[in-house]
Amino acid sequence: MKKKKRNNSTKDLGDLSRKIINILRKNGGKTYNYKQIASILGVDDPGSRNQITKKLAQLAAKKEIEQVERGKFKIEGRKNYYQGKLDMTTKGYGYVMVEELEDDVFIPQNDLNTAFHGDEVEIYIYNNRRKKKSEGEVTRVINRKRTEFVGILDLQKDFGFVRIDDAKMYTDFFVQKNKIQDAKDGDKVVVEMEDWPDKADSPFGKITKVLGTPGEHQTEIHGILAQYGLPHDFPTEVEEFANQIDTSIQESEIKKRRDMRDVLTFTIDPKDAKDFDDALSFQKLDNGQFEVGIHIADVSHYLKPGTILDEEAYERATSVYLVDRVVPMLPEILSNNACSLRPNEEKYTFSAVFKMDKNAKVVDQWFGRTVTYSDARFAYEEAQHIIETRGGDIPAGVSIKEDAYKANDNVVEAILELNAMAKKMRSRRMREGAISFDKVEVKFQLDEQNEPIGVFFKTSEDANKLIEEFMLLANRKVAEFIGKQDPKKTFVYRCHDEPDDSKLASLQTIVSKFGHKLNLKDKNSIASSLNSLLVDVQGTKEQNMVDTLTIRTMSKAYYGTENIGHYGLAFDYYTHFTSPIRRYPDVMVHRLLQRYLDNNPTANQDEYEEKCHHSSDMEGLATSAERDSIKYMQVKFMQDHQDEDYVGVISGVTDWGIFVEIIENKCEGMIRLRDLKDDHYEFDEENYAVVGRKTKKVYQLGDEVYVNVKNADLLKRHLDFNLLGLKEEVENK
């Protein structure tokens, strides 16, 4: 960074307290008098020295520095130093979240000292009591969240600059000519940070990958993955290792397992699924009870600790589902073949088998390794048709086979019985305080070039809920089996804390604008009123917005070895056991469960806590990448519909613009206040509205308006709308 020129006058003594503290802090333990400080500050006039003397006395009186002997001062070595994570804003300043402190610490841009968004940093806090928030500066970057960034190359004759796509990045990167590779001016690239010299305005970097021309589909999708440090293919050595694994079913291995190949077993998955990691088995028992098996691909049989395959799976920690592709956690030989519970194939599985009564209550349970045979594969639509018609005639329009067909009577009976049991389990969960999130998913119809040609919405029906309930049952019972048996045993739990009171209060204020109420009296009333809200908004203009805002009030679920229960599901014990093909924590759960079934001692908690933390972080990155890919596709879709007018609902109001979500396709964009030419609009924070200064015209959260597209920016993944007016005004013209 460039250093400012000093003036030898009192004009240079602005914020003198901070400058004195900085000098003493950076030379911790060493004593200074006013002359030495004046010399370091580069001032020598009597007025400046007098100010320094006064300020030293004031700071000593406030106990911010220590007067060791007359006229000599020092500061305690590590006083007011903290560690935390930097959260940058798009305006160039940041906040550091420190565990020991109630409030975040404000960091001005000129005190970031090379730290970037997400970095773990050491900060020094200045005691400034005139301000509500503490203010500080970054003194050291402890750990960089990332060192690679995605941006656009501005190529000069002998060097280049990479402008970073991320709005939270406040600097570009300087790249020397010999580190530009074969990138061309205007290319989207990945740049790796190498150094940030003291006097340099920008960090120095090297280009590690050329992604392609900005705006092109492959470039942008690979750019999203690279932005979050996510891979899009496997290293050659990992693929080769996976391809050499013996995936055949061996008689010697079958003998070590419970053989369930003769029990009716089937899968229900999305029609375009390729990895089937869970199957259900069903049989009626002589006493009128049912035996239900939840069979999960035995990934840990093939994925051995210490191998390059396991290391790669751990680093990825999760599969990433973008709009046009899946970036799998495991190579195809495992994810789509050996571990996929495909129909008419024997597979190694890890199972939770329950004896259940007519009320869907578990009366007996068994956990262990099995071998299974899937008799049939169904898409959710086919299973839904069986539930709705109570018969097995699958018409051509629903069938995932080429033609209409008739499903086996035993499977039809199993699906109907399981559905009835799932409804009872779900009803019981809701009564016990679970929250029912049936959020509408936005999906795109893509042509062969991955261009979006349509938008549709995916909702959860009975067939989806059937599978969901039995997966929840397996996850809960596995966690209970370990947790209740011995709470000291190291295990991987899926944890979810209670919602934040202030977020609930904000949600209550917002939904009241739509005529809805929340009861925030106690834990049970919160859960039941949130459920009522989610039911009440179904099919309304505000549904997607309220669903999204309600999810945001919730604490973030995470993986941890300390069990706190799962608030959203109303479970005291919960884990992830059912998706080891796509989630590494499930692999860890399988390994730990087998370890304890074999009566081995508890695993190292610190080791598993670190793995849990990594898995939670990677889950967050994958979620962000998935969200960005949807936003990218929405912008791409709207580019082709710029001449159309849409009805939308005002989904957010800020001091610089109004956010509008189009009702028919859920695409969200912004109307900037400066673009509203009929009046000067001011933000009314209390009422989530903007109000015209002269006309007193109001645009408020929840209002329906007509909009069209002003600008669809693929690179920033941002939509700008023109406001055509309130819905009733436009339609009455």
Automatic annotation (TrEMBL):
It is found in: Cytoplasm. The keyword Kinase does not apply. Its EC number is 3.1.13.1. InterPro entries: CSD (IPR011129), CSD2 (IPR040476), NA-bd_OB-fold (IPR012340), RNase_B_OB_dom (IPR013223), RNase_II/R (IPR001900), RNase_II/R_CS (IPR022966), RNase_II/RNase_R (IPR004476), RNase_R (IPR011805). CDD domains: S1_RNase_R. Belongs to the RNR ribonuclease family. RNase R subfamily. This is Ribonuclease R.
